[in-house]
Amino acid sequence: xxxxxxxxxxxxxxxxxxxxxxxxxxxxTTDQRLLDTEGDSEWVHTDPWRVMRIQSEFxxxxxxxxxxxxxxxxxxxxxxxxxxxEYEAGVRIGSALVDAGFAVITGGGPGAMEAANRxxxxxQGVSVGLGIELPFEQGLNPHVxxxxxxxxxxxxxxxxxxxxxxxxxxxxxLGTLDELFEALTLVQTRKVxxxxxxxFGTAYWNGLIDWLRDTVVxxxxxxxxxxxxFHVTDDVDEAVALVxxxxxx
Length: 249
Prior knowledge:
Helix 3 runs parallel beside helix 4 and helix 3 (85-99) crosses helix 8. The strands form two sheets. Strands 6-5-4-3-7-8-9 form a seven-stranded parallel β-sheet, with helices on both faces. A two-stranded antiparallel ribbon has the order 1-2. It has eight helices and nine strands. The chain is elongated, with a radius of gyration of 25 Å. 33% of the residues are buried. The chain has 249 residues and is of the alpha/beta class. Helix content is 41%, strand content 15%.
């Protein structure tokens, strides 16, 4: 859509806060371009449009979680088999966190995440799942009461940190390690107020802790005090006590 037939091109054009003059005057108006259905659809794949989708994910996440009670994020492997010792520990941790007065936030998937959500639900607490769009994702587990699905990992990780007062990290793979080191980095660099991080399962985590101490710290890539940013335990009650003690008013 352009100017009416026979109309002269104006010398000055106001488009919202923008003024265009002489050769920079564009045909039509902003509303005309908005309502024009002609043209290709490549714009939906451009970075400016992605920015709007990213913004919308933040808005949806903030809106869904803003009124949560105090919460703890529980991380762990999606591959943890139901009925295994690790799964049952996740159920007990989810239940114990509710008994301590906290909502439980997980990635919403199967395995250890499902276990923690199940424990929270069975304890009559608030069970939250923050899912992620993946080619092989199975959807939110049935024990989630409040669920939000995200396209972008970085938006999802913001929600894990913003709405939790602490982290419990069950044995897990690359995704769990990503979430663990994200939390450790934010605390170490003081990008967030310090909050407790508990690793559950000494046999699983000791090798990583030894490497951090004997290689990373020993070579000066981190400081000795960075090893104090987290706790490690095999006891459910101790894990809950450690992750909640620093959150009490």
